[in-house]
Amino acid sequence: MKRIVCAAVLAGGVFSLASTGLAQTAAPAPPAGPPLTPTGTAPPLQQSAGDGTMLLTVFLRHDQSKNLKEINETIAKNGYFDQFPPPGVEVVSWYVVMGIGQIVTLKLPPEKLREVNVVLENTVWGPYRTDFYPTYDYKQLAEQQKQMMRARPR
């Protein structure tokens, strides 16, 4: 009973943040001047190139009780190689991470999000567990922040 009450209280807090306007619902406009200040505040988020797309990082965590041949046979039988990525979805990066599996970053219009999810549910569940993370490019801002922090008076 305590767990249910705690979960309800936590959920209520999340919903109250959203309803009071404290939750961020849209990415801020890109900064006009230097995006970083040495005040310790987070730099503003970088939007996509204005093309109406989003980035999504997908972790495909392999089932280590299966060998590579078994995994590939199962996903091939399920149509993975024919269906992923769906049309209109661009692969930005695709890495194998030893001990985890594969990490794929996709660029897609938001209306393709459900299609990506369904293709992966239908083709890789079993041999892989999936995790999805909305993603944004932070490299340029991180480099700028590093330069500013190194140049600040100590």
Task: Tell me about the largest β-sheet.
Answer: 4 strands, antiparallel
Mean pLDDT: 79
Briefly note the CATH topology name of the domain at 54-135: Alpha-Beta Plaits
Order of adjacent strands in the largest pleated sheet: 2-3-1-4
Strand content: 15-25%
Q: Based on helices, strands and strand pairing, what is the structural class?
A: alpha+beta
Radius of gyration: 20 Å
Please describe what this structure looks like.
With 154 residues, the protein is an alpha+beta fold. The chain has a domain at 54-135: Alpha-Beta Plaits. Helix content is 36%, strand content 21%. It contains 5 helices and 4 strands, in the order H-E-H-H-E-E-H-E-H. It has helices spanning 2-19, 68-77, 80-83, 113-123, 139-151; strands at 54-62, 90-97, 101-108, 128-135. The protein has a 4-stranded antiparallel sheet, covered by helices on one side. The chain is flat and about 60 Å long. The model is unreliable at 1-38 (pLDDT under 50).
Please specify the SSE layout and strand pairing.
Elements: H1 2-19, E1 54-62, H2 68-77, H3 80-83, E2 90-97, E3 101-108, H4 113-123, E4 128-135, H5 139-151
Antiparallel strand pairs: 1-3, 1-4, 2-3
Structural key phrases:
154 residues; Alpha-Beta Plaits; disordered N terminus
Quick rundown:
This protein is α+β, with helices and mostly antiparallel strands.
